[in-house]
Amino acid sequence: MLRSCFSLLGVAIFALPVFANSPQRAFMEQFNSSRIEFPSETAPILTDASGQYPEPLNFVFNNIVSWIPRGEPKLFSAMCNPDVWGQRLKDPRLKNSLQLQGALIQKYFQDCRAELETGDNSYFANMSMLTMKYDPFGHPFLRRVVLNLPGNVKLKGLLGLKGDFKRRPLVVIRLGIFANSEDFKAERAWMMMLFEQSPFNVLLLENMSSGQFVANNNQFSFGGYDEGIQNILLAKLLNDNNEPLSQLVDSVHFFGISLGGHGVLFASLLNKFNSSSRPLIQSFTALCPVVDLNATMLSLTNSGVKSAFVDLWGRQRLSALGTKMPALVSYESFSFLSTAITEVARTYKGGLSYISSVKLPPGMKDGPDFWELNNFWKFYKNVEQPVLIYATEQDPAVPFNINSQRLQNKDIKVDSKNIRVVDLPQGIHCSLPITYDWVALTTLLQSQILSHSPNFKMVEKSLSIELTDDEWKGFFDKGSSVKFTVEEPGKKSGFATVELELENAAGKEKTMNLSLPLSQFDFRFLNKELSASEQEMIVRWLNQNLRFTLDTTTGKAILKASWPVAQ
């Protein structure tokens, strides 16, 4: 109870004594710089609570209806095994054609829908996207950061590093409307999948429409034009050898959600104009992205009951805007958000972080026309890096028919073969981790990014056991299967225990336990004790990456456990 009551304003009180001087934190601190800054946990910019979820709602989400995703694997048919489809995505013959990759993903969701769909597609079930238990500030592998960008713009984020010096793909997650890096809920699953269960380092960044961004900056804007420029500036930093964090970067990939997807789409256009010998950004993924900003904002603010709810929610999340925007001193009922949007467009003077070193497409110029700059599709030609869009047909927030579907049916004409929409019948505004199998979804996201990380390699770690005791005699003669359950490791344990259930063709079952050393996993655990966040992470990582095979070809039964790690 006490922890919950301080979950917003006092998070540093709990995190600071435990992790401030820990070896894991010391590893992170060495990548601090003037441009990617690691402020003190007590710095005002980190303790400000503007625009976060109301505390009563936080209490309900965190304590009453919360749940812990484990990402447990299930048995798939050979035809629908996620590993098989993941390997197909990484086939070198496909990586140069996003149309083929996208078609393969679409085919997987269509052909294997009976095994991939969970059946949880109601609005109530999809609300569980908001109630996943996750404590980013009690997580030693995560560190709050501030990006200092041109125009005196400060952008807050959350950096996840694996704790080693291996060069890995770095995935930048751009959050959706109103979302900030202090209190992101709808996007927690993507942090788990891309950082905890995949071989990537991750930088999660707030949306410019967040209350935190409003509180920490003198200017306010939103949308793809400004965020796309931010994305390019960040990619330049991550590719700059003078930037300490660049030592860990093999390649840069952007992953945008909802309104954050609009800036990722614009960055995909800017990428080739701002790259030199190699692309700044290697791939782009957008989940239910805003494609038409003007039409989407009109839908949010002119749709009756839905708009009234959005307006109330926007007023709560953007309360700090009232002190910075005179037009919001008074406004008609349920018109807070529409007034704010109108005022942003009216007073816009050009990109908040635009500088001349950011090259725009020929014919496009920075200026005061907010809506024209955010309607960049007429310049969208010959994009070279892959742009993969996932969109759900049910989407009250970013309606499919006025956004991704317009790209799919060529209502918005783009002269590029490297953009592809995968449309999905299940899920509401891309609540895919609820409506589709967690392991399969993680495998697809991971494989797509790995297929565009040509210099990054992984190796297999393994442990083999001969099952030659008399109790195993004849057990495997006609084939068998293996299922496993991961136990949460103890705080001071250097091993994770896995309980195996082996079943032979006759239906006979046997169980055994296996201990796997944490030192051989794809994280470097530097602290003496594991936090609850690390314990949960280990369970998720093993469920996604651990594989078992049985080899009886030599006359002996050999059980092999294997898992991939970065080379």
Q: What is the structure about, briefly put?
A:
The protein has 567 residues and is an alpha/beta fold.
The quaternary state of the protein chains shown equals single chain
SS elements, strand count: 15
Largest sheet, in brief, is: 9 strands, mixed
Task: Enumerate how many helices there are, as a single number.
Answer: 22
Question: Separation of termini?
Answer: 43 Å
Identify the strand order in the major beta sheet.
1-2-3-5-4-6-7-8-9
Helix/strand class: alpha/beta
The fraction of residues in strands falls at 15-25%
- Average pLDDT, rounded to a whole number, is 93
Radius of gyration: 24 Å
Using the alpha-carbon principal axes, give the shape.
globular
Low-confidence stretches: 1-17
Helix content: 25-40%
Key features?
single chain, 567 residues, alpha/beta, nine-stranded mixed β-sheet, three-stranded antiparallel β-sheet, 20% strand, disordered N terminus
How is this structure best described in words?
By secondary structure, this protein is α/β, with parallel strands linked by helices. It has helices at 2-5, 11-19, 23-29, 44-47, 55-64, 82-89, 92-95, 98-111, 113-116, 123-126, 188-196, 211-216, 224-238, 259-270, 293-301, 305-317, 336-347, 370-374, 404-408, 432-435, 438-450, 532-545; strands at 36-37, 142-149, 153-160, 168-174, 201-205, 249-257, 283-287, 387-394, 419-428, 458-466, 480-486, 495-504, 509-517, 547-551, 558-566. Helix 6 (82-89) runs parallel beside helix 21. The model is unreliable at 1-17 (pLDDT under 50).
